Amino acid sequence: MKFWETVTGSDLTREWKAFQARAEALPADHRAAWEQIVGNLMPYSDFTGRNLMRILDGALGLLEESAAEGQSVDEVLGDDVAGFCAALAGGEGARSHRDRWREQLNRNVARKLGRLGG
């Protein structure tokens, strides 16, 4: 990966467009599952989403393989897509960007209160 691609994120844009092209080739129910997976995984990403690209690639590959084998989405993902995505992201206790922001806010408030009280 070149420095300029890293800075601008053009490598991610290219990779995302490739994901979308692959997803368009899926049957309708698998494509809908892909949209649910993307929607459920995005809260676990960092600012750029780089940390999710491998996970998204694997999930899309799973959907492609299951479609090729004629398996239904329910057979592959089960009925809890959000739980499936939480497991992919690192388990039920996986931290989202909202959790990190909350912790940062709490630290800042505690630091400010410590200065005022001390």
Give keywords.
118 residues, c-terminal domain of poly(a) binding protein, 73% helix, 0% strand
| Share of helix, binned | over 70%
Number of domains: 1
Q: Give the name of the CATH architecture.
A: Orthogonal Bundle
H and E order:
HHHHHHH
- The end-to-end span amounts to 49 Å
Number of strands: 0
Shape: flat
Structural class: mainly alpha
Percent in strands:
under 5%
Per the CATH scheme, the topology name is c-terminal domain of poly(a) binding protein
Q: Supply the CATH superfamily name.
A: c-terminal domain of poly(a) binding protein
Calculate the mean pLDDT score and round it.
83
Query: Radius of gyration over alpha carbons?
Result: 19 Å
Report the total helices.
7
Main sheet?
Answer: none
* pLDDT < 50 runs, ≥5 residues: none
Topology:
Elements: H1 3-8, H2 10-24, H3 28-41, H4 53-68, H5 73-77, H6 81-89, H7 97-117
Explain briefly what this protein structure is.
The chain is mainly α and 118 residues long. It has helices at 3-8, 10-24, 28-41, 53-68, 73-77, 81-89, 97-117. 73% of the residues lie in helices and 0% in strands.
Task: Explain what this protein looks like in three dimensions.
There is one protein chain. With 118 residues, this protein is an all-alpha fold. The chain has one domain: c-terminal domain of poly(a) binding protein (Orthogonal Bundle). The protein is built from seven helices and no strands. It has helices at 3-8, 10-24, 28-41, 53-68, 73-77, 81-89, 97-117. It is flat, with a radius of gyration of 19 Å. The chain starts with a helix and ends with a helix. The mean pLDDT is 83.
